[in-house]
Amino acid sequence: MNLPEGMHVFERGWLSANNVLFTGPGPATLVDSGYATHAAQTVALVEHALQGRALERVLITHMHSDHCGGNAALQQRYDCRSAVPAAEAAKVSAWDEAALSFKATGQQCPRFRVDDVLTPGDELELGGMAWRVLGAPGHYAHSVILYCARERILISADALWRNGFGVIFPELDGESGFAEERATLELIAGLDVGLVIPGHGAMFTDVQEALKRAFTRLDYFEADPVRNAENAVKVMLKFLLLERQQIALEDVAGMMATIPLMKTAGANYLRKDSGELAEWAVKSLVRSGAARRDGALLRNYDL
């Protein structure tokens, strides 16, 4: 897939979100910075692509740790400006980890400075191209996505992947999320998009087919919110495995009891205590091929 000159996509997998780097006309700008444990790799990728230029801006689509975990390292290296969705700026400035998502998910993110905000409706120039900031709640209440009408490119974060979208986390806290995700998908369906750069996974051009799959998946979750909670528990445990590569089986129940969103999902939706939830989650990941048992350990496994 051909990108406009001066636009680069670093596909990072599932622990770190994809990064989009603009090296064309205007300030060198990175969209999303990956997870904390990959920060050195993020800096190296950016340095290599910039070829001696300085990174001037980092834009964060939403405050999940896999999208903003490299900010601190990039600011240390370049003293670059950092922009977050406007509704998150005060929380980031105060570094309120309870109000942000890090404590709730059991993930980490080094503190970074916020200089600017992204507000739906903003027009940005990135790489000499005009991009519009669009609100994209659903997966995360204050997520934004970026759209370039001239090039028909959408940076969709976790609002739309080739096969679905990110966990609808607001629903786990008893807040509305399904309706917001549907509205976001409908917004995307109304855009003229030829290429999607998702938050995770490869870029894709079969946009209408991806939207059909996403709407079908959303229907599935809306029909029974327990399914969204099951998906969330499996995704969060898999994320911890991606980060650590192995977890003692005896420690999984403790995670289920102490990570707030896992505990909430188990108690309110799956009706399982921490031990039952741990046993179910481990079996589910092993059965799907996402993990394997190795004696007293649960190990990450990718097909």
Tell me what the structure shows:
41% of the residues lie in helices and 19% in strands. The protein is an alpha/beta fold and 303 residues long. It has two domains: 7-222, Metallo-beta-lactamase, Chain A (4-Layer Sandwich), CATH 3.60.15.10; 225-300, Arc Repressor Mutant, subunit A. It is globular, with a radius of gyration of 19 Å.
Structure keywords:
303 residues, alpha/beta, Metallo-beta-lactamase, Chain A, Arc Repressor Mutant, subunit A, 2 domains, 6-stranded mixed beta sheet, 12 helices, 14 strands, 41% helix, globular
Strands, helices and their partners?
Blueprint: E1 7-10, E2 19-22, E3 29-31, H1 39-50, E4 57-59, H2 65-68, H3 71-78, E5 81-85, H4 89-94, H5 102-105, E6 116-118, E7 123-126, E8 129-135, E9 144-148, E10 153-157, H6 169-172, H7 178-189, E11 195-198, H8 207-223, H9 225-244, E12 246-248, H10 249-258, H11 260-270, H12 274-288, E13 291-294, E14 297-300
Parallel strand pairs: 3-4, 4-5, 5-6, 10-11
Antiparallel strand pairs: 1-2, 2-3, 7-8, 8-9, 9-10, 12-14, 13-14
Helix pairs in contact: 1-3, 7-8, 8-9, 9-11, 9-12, 10-11, 10-12
Report the radius of gyration as a whole number of Å: 19 Å
What percentage of amino acids are in beta strands? 15-25%
- CATH class designation of the largest domain: Alpha Beta
Strand elements, count: 14
Structural class by helix and strand composition: alpha/beta
**Terminus-to-terminus distance:** 25 Å
Our count of helices gives 12
Question: What is the N-to-C succession of helices and strands?
Answer: EEEHEHHEHHEEEEEHHEHHEHHHEE
Principal-axes geometry comes out as globular
**CATH topology term of the largest domain:** Metallo-beta-lactamase, Chain A
The fourth-level CATH homologous superfamily of the largest domain is Ribonuclease Z/Hydroxyacylglutathione hydrolase-like
> Biggest β-sheet, characterized?
6 strands, mixed
Q: Which percent bin holds the helix content? A: 40-55%
Uncertain runs are none
Give, in spatial order, the strands making up the sheet with the most strands.
1-2-3-4-5-6
Global mean pLDDT: 96
Q: How many domains, in number, for the residues?
A: 2
Architecture per CATH nomenclature, i.e. the level-2 architecture of the largest domain:
4-Layer Sandwich
Oligomer: single chain
